[in-house]
Amino acid sequence: MGILLIGMSHKTSPLAIRERLALSCENSWHPLDRLRQMPSIREALYLATCNRVEVLVCAPDQAEPEAGEALKALLTERARIAQSELERCLYTFTGVEAVRHLFRVASSLDSLVMGEAQILGQVKEAYRQAVEHETTGTMLNRILHHAFSVAKRVRTETGIADNAVSVGYAAVELAKKIFGRLEGKAILLVGAGEMSELAARHLLKQGISSIFVANRTYARAQEIAGLFEGTAVTLEQMPEVLKKVDIVISSTGAPDYVLTREMVAAALHRRKNRFLFLIDIAVPRDIEPAAGDIDNVYLYNIDHLQELVDENRNSRLREAARAELIIEEELRNHRAWISSLEVVPTIVEFREKIEGIMKAELEKSAAWRQALSQTDQQHVEGLVASIVNKILHEPTACLREESRNRNGLAYAEALRRLFGLGK
User: Any idea where the Glutamyl-tRNA reductase N-terminal domain is (predicted)?
Assistant: First the structure.
């Protein structure tokens, strides 16, 4: 069974393409439903975040090319663009390289913000959905749980997360570059998710005067606003709130624009030329790009935060090197497990043959064993089973050990010839 990963990230594709693939699965067919129906795919995981979309699948070795084409076709259909345009943004990993990439992603080494904690939760959520859709099995279950333990090791054994900035923090730093100081400024948070909460915590440290929180679910907006002594508003009230605030940070899961150019222009007319700073950290984007063309409006999206992130990134490169060593160590463990899988069929067949011989010989002796008491018969059967287990133990243990040294297939073939397995 082969492992195949195809995807794109902030490193390989523009925001305009990523946001097409990151549309909420609730608004259309879920990719896992389609993946489950593909004959070339046995197991599947679909990961979609602000900065990446990846599909990880297990497929029979001979079916990998077919699976790869099927995945590209699925992503093309979902993005609604030409496959040639999409393929320029894609990367493909197979086998151990696919597992290495997953380990690096879960450990935040491949994140826009190296060391950020959100990606591990996003990988776990993708895994939860895969389990819910029944698209995982022995292979992906083992690989994903291994990825979670690798990420935990990286966070506890290195300083990769020390001084790590979130995207929300980077957005606040960008606001400071525009305004200089944020004391006395009013902020509107659109969306009441984790990203908005993190941004609010950073904003409070800068001495802002007031926070407004708008969300599709008003009760959730009240919950977040209550944490920061802010004011909850409905999405319908946003045009009125835009007249009062200086900064808007938007991070929702909406498939369409939450703030349009028309809404922003109407608010600016009543603001007497005061600057309005818009930060759109949602994928797909929440704010219509044309809003940035309005005088006195400054619009930034998640890709614009890269420069700020890079300034912080340099301080953690040494810790990243230590994290890479951990990943290589864990990959050796993964290879050992994969190698052990290669000899499992031979071990099973070997055990079945020896146990079959034992059962056949016991059946031949059934006539004279009937003269024994039931207790004595059980003793004879137990003795024979014990002898068989002792005979099986040494060659089975040796085969498993050699599989870890990458000699498993040669030893398995020798065992098959010596004992006539498969005949």
Answer: 6-158
